[in-house]
Design a protein that fits this description.
alpha+beta, 8-stranded parallel beta sheet, 7-stranded antiparallel beta sheet, 33 strands, 23% strand, globular, disordered C terminus
């Protein structure tokens, strides 16, 4: 009986090893080159346990071809096939035969069912910028980052916005107010310039600026003039006297505001400041991307001019609100064509009359104007490195036109600057825009922000609900990651903006207190109560080691808290930073930059349990293991690191711990662990995470010393 049980156990373990050994993806290791041009030949590889399967086939449409054994390494067999590519996308998956068993393999992993959904893909000509793959990005909401030039600050009463006068906030540390859109703290481009050394020392590689073009709001998602940087965050060299009298809402009387935002001397000086900022960013080896809001503009926009800012200014045409004969009439959809002058009946995005929706389908002139803008800012003398696109899926009045627009946008941007990044805001499945001819990638809500937030905090990304059933639910986390990542081709996945929070959602550190609330009903102080920095550090470890571009929202590294908009837009606490959190960020960013495999390597879940997650990043040269224990107690776990390519035969493979964090703090001192038969035994501290790298003991011919990671 004992022998039979032992044999049965051996068979089950062999089957388990066989299944978990099966692997392929779209990284360079398994699809080479993984960004081919038409006419190239792509080598596709598939990994199995050594001497374990009878045959591997690749299936693409109606074509089924057997793959050849390329070679063996570290207990694995690698099968390959060369595929010539033309101009069309090639979708494929695998069939594996062993004995009487047949299974299939696609982006979701192993299946017993024949299926084409979630196939791997070869997309000839789809190339995303190498500099963006795995790049450490830093998002800046300009008004709240740093006030480098108080002379350009918005003045209290300078103009009216949404029926009230704007306000200059003189106390940088004042709490954000509930209706915050017309409150200005004074952050500007000079402040960004002043802090470039800080960002470089932090380890930032790419700066993403929220909108910077002329706009009456502090968030600037209601553009007033696409051709110029707002002088309130740029340079003011000429202005007139004249604030709005108390109680007056008529902005045609706001002489100081009108002079500041229409005088070409201010506008050109502000554009020159942006040129200088970008030159300084590039001089440091960093990049910068701008925020493009092309679905709608603002009611202050010179094409509409509902506020009559431009009506009497020299050098400006009449706005579409002012005159039916405006050259911009077709830029907007008017619901009443018999109401001029001053026609207030126009289509607003989601009904907001402060956000006129741009009417591309009826206006080739508008289309060309926006394409000119798209080219302008990524071309000399500005040379920005790309666009982040606001509410990109909403643009236009039909899905067909939306896709047409973004195809044209890509063509224009890439012709102007082939190395520019095109990254869109999108919630949900973005695969129809990520086919190689529209967007490069997206802000990664579905395959990063949301799964990480639910798993580590149980909190919805706005802090609007708490789900006990999702807190620590590794099955839900892994399923979400698996399914949503499968909608990306690798070129998009590696450049996806992996955020924990941003200007639209609650701060992640606030979510660690499990407090459901918003500023208006809970108050600012509640966002800071009971937060758990250890859980925040776990999240950042995942962020810095998961496929994609880890993106820091300004101030997260300094311990900033906040409920969702507007509380998430607190000022950066210069001089009041959480120094421990800041030091943690600096060290974990260096870990991310130290290992190339964290930018372009494969990913595989190695172990999962309640509040427990272990995954590997790997290629043929390097293996990194990341373990996260979100429990309130220490746990012991066996990690099958052999699945990342570490030998199952050797009894003395070496893993080096290069970083760890737990409830008591964090450290990056090296500790060495021995791996026996491909298994690493770990003790993980409560609310902790650890990062390990594989160190091969290669003997030097002269001194016999081993290589370190």
């Amino acid at each position: 009986m004992g022998i039979e049980r032992a044999q049965d156990y051996t068979i089950k373990m062999r089957a388990l090893f066989s299944k978990r050994a099966l692997y392929s993806d779209e990284t360079e290791m398994y699809q080479s080159p993984n960004e081919p041009e038409p006419g190239d030949t792509v080598r596709v590889r598939f990994r199995t346990l050594r001497n374990n399967v009878d045959a591997v086939y690749i299936i693409s449409g109606s074509i089924r071809k057997e793959m050849e054994l390329e070679g063996s390494e570290n207990g694995f067999d690698y099968f390959c096939i060369d595929i010539p590519v033309g101009h069309e996308t090639i979708l494929y998956y695998f069939e594996i035969q062993y004995g009487k068993m047949t299974c299939y393999y696609n982006k979701l992993g192993v299946s017993r069912d024949l299926q084409e959904a979630y196939s791997f893909g070869i997309v000839p000509g789809f190339r995303t910028p190498d500099w963006a793959k795995g790049a450490v990005m830093y998002q800046i909401f300009v008004d709240r980052f740093c006030n480098g030039d108080p002379s350009n600050d918005v003045e209290t009463g300078e103009y009216s916005y949404i029926h009230e006068h704007v306000t200059r906030v003189t106390d940088w540390n004042r709490s954000v107010q509930n209706m915050d859109v017309r409150n200005f703290y004074g952050g500007d481009l000079q402040g960004v310039i002043d802090k470039l050394d800080y960002l470089q020392e932090l380890g930032v590689e790419v700066i993403y600026l929220n909108p910077i073009f002329v706009s009456p709001s502090n968030h600037k998602y209601d553009c007033q003039d696409y051709d110029y940087v707002d002088p309130h965050i740029g340079k003011i060299v000429a202005e007139e006297e004249g604030l709005l009298p108390p109680g007056v809402q008529d902005n045609s009387r706001a002489r100081r505001y009108i002079s500041r935002v229409t005088d070409k001397r201010n506008l050109e000086a502000s554009n020159q400041l942006l040129i200088y900022l970008i030159e300084e960013v590039h001089r440091r080896g960093m990049r910068i991307i701008l925020d493009g809001v092309f679905n709608h503009c603002g009611s202050f926009n010179k094409w509409m001019d509902r506020e009559r800012i431009y009506e009497k200014q020299e050098g400006y045409e009449k706005g579409a609100y002012v005159s039916k004969d405006s050259p911009y009439h077709s830029y907007f959809k008017f619901l009443n064509e018999h109401n001029w002058p001053y026609n207030e009946f126009y289509d607003g995005w989601w009904g907001h009359n402060t956000l006129p929706k741009l009417n591309y389908e009826a206006s080739p002139e508008l289309m060309e104007d926006i394409m000119r803008v798209a080219r302008k800012w990524v071309s000399p003398p500005f040379n920005a490195d790309g666009w982040r696109l606001d509410v990109a899926a909403d643009l236009g009045h039909s899905p067909e036109f939306n896709h047409h627009f973004w195809k044209e946008f890509r063509r224009n941007v890439k012709e102007a600057n082939p190395d520019a990044l095109i990254l869109a805001e999108h919630y949900g499945d973005a695969s129809s825009w990520l086919q190689g001819d529209e967007w490069d990638s997206v802000m990664n809500y579905d395959a990063f922000m949301e799964p990480v937030s639910w798993f580590l905090t149980g909190m919805e990304k706005h802090s609007d609900s708490f789900r006990q059933d999702l807190l620590g639910n590794s099955d839900s986390f892994c399923d979400a990651m698996r399914y949503h990542m499968a909608s990306f081709y690798m070129a998009s996945l590696q450049t996806a903006m992996n955020e924990l929070d941003n200007h639209d959602h609650s701060r992640f550190l606030t979510r660690t207190n499990h407090r459901v609330g918003r500023l208006e009903n809970s108050g600012a102080h509640a966002a800071e109560e009971g937060v758990n920095p250890a859980v925040m550090r776990e999240a950042v470890v995942i962020q810095m080691t998961w496929p994609g571009a880890p993106t820091i929202y300004y101030g997260d590294e300094a311990g900033v808290c906040g409920f969702t908009d507007p509380d998430n837009r607190r000022t950066y606490p210069w001089g009041r930073e959480n120094q421990e959190m800041l030091r943690f960020y600096r060290e974990i960013i260096q870990i991310h930059k130290r290992f190339p495999v964290l930018r372009k390597g494969s990913v595989k879940i190695l172990h999962q349990d309640y509040n427990l997650l272990v995954f590997g990043r790997f290629d043929r040269e390097e293996q990194v293991i990341v373990a996260v224990n979100n429990r309130n107690e220490r746990v012991s776990v066996e990690i099958p690191v052999w699945e990342t390519g570490i030998s199952r035969i050797s009894q003395s493979e070496i893993m080096e711990e290069v970083f760890r964090t737990d409830a008591g703090g964090f450290a990056s001192e090296s500790r060495v662990f021995t791996v026996a038969a491909g298994i690493m035994n770990l003790e993980l501290e409560a609310q902790g995470a650890a990062v390990f790298c594989h160190r091969e003991e290669k003997k030097d011919e002269t001194n016999g010393e081993g290589d370190a990671c």
